[in-house]
Design goal:
By secondary structure, the chain is mainly alpha-helical. 56% of the residues lie in helices and 0% in strands. α1 (21-34) crosses α2 (40-53) and α2 packs across α3. The N and C termini lie far apart (49 Å).
Length: 73
């Protein structure tokens, strides 16, 4: 079965799949670079809290932005 070229949408890199461990780890590592004093579990919790507040289909950057706000508080 070939790919339907008429079905276009947001690229996969725009999203975070919370089912994929490597994608969650990548996002956590990116946040830890900005907040090096925070433990990995705290950063991961902030990321998951952000995903609850922001619709995951709104995109990676919106989730990351909310996670940064969570970590600053």
């Amino acid at each position: 079965m070939s790919d339907n070229k008429k079905n276009t949408g947001k690229p996969d890199s725009y999203l975070i799949s919370f089912k994929e461990k490597y994608e969650v780890n990548y996002a956590v590592n990116q946040l830890q670079k900005e907040f090096p004093n925070e433990k990995k579990q705290v950063v991961k919790d902030a990321l998951f809290e952000a995903a609850k507040k922001v619709n995951p289909s709104d995109g990676r950057e919106n989730i990351m932005r909310q996670a940064r706000k969570n970590l600053k508080n």
